[in-house]
Specification:
111 residues, 3 helices
Amino acid sequence: MPDFKLALAPSQLTQTINPWSWTFGNVSLFSVNLGQSGDPDFEARVLERVGSYGRQLGRLGEAMAVVLDHLEAQDPALREAKPVRALRRQLEEIADLKAAHHAPPAAVSAG
């Protein structure tokens, strides 16, 4: 009797979503790739030496806040621009999340 095989899924169910990977010999614990890079090795060095994408974006946000403060001092109407309000709101939300993340745990009361 002939063998009958029905493949309802690919034989390998993995997806690369980030440029980092942990490997031990031929065994990879995880591998992440956020997209196509012209030079993934260089990008990995930047992530190792400069900082994560989040850290890089955080620095850009901080710099933008300084630029906005300067520009808004010259033209207060700039505060009302929708993109400026949206960016300020995002920066405030990030600051709130950082503060909550770094806050000491609440004391547990006995009794």
